[in-house]
Design a protein that fits this description.
- By secondary structure, the chain is mainly alpha-helical.
- It has 4 helices and no strands.
- The longest helix has 18 residues.
């Protein structure tokens, strides 16, 4: 019997409220709230993942345009549903297909 290699995971420590914390949270929240955007990202991301399996810098570079497209849309989404002090407000997102009630900077729904 052949055993497959163990999967490698990533753990990140980030300063609360920093750009490096907020960027991935906003990115993932936007994709969770907008399934068509998540499908597009997954479709585009698969090609470089297969092509550059052992070359992380090339993989990251190859998917750069879709990452920035998603983050531009995510930023517009956050601005649209935002409001109130201390983060994005608890407003419903009116975008088609949105499944998340809100996004707040502190991660609380």
């Amino acid at each position: 019997m052949t055993r497959s290699p163990a999967r490698v995971g990533t753990t990140n420590a980030r300063q609360l409220g920093s750009f490096s914390e907020q960027f991935p949270l906003l990115f993932c929240d936007h994709l969770r709230a907008h399934p068509p955007a998540a499908s597009e990202y997954a479709d585009v991301e698969r090609r470089p993942a297969a092509q550059f399996r052992h070359d992380r810098p090339a993989y990251v570079g190859a998917k750069g345009s879709i990452v920035w497209k998603v983050i531009r849309h995510a930023d517009a989404w956050a601005q649209h549903i935002g409001g109130g002090q201390g983060g994005f407000g608890l407003a419903s997102c009116p975008h088609a297909g949105c499944q998340r009630a809100s996004y707040r900077a502190d991660g609380v729904l």
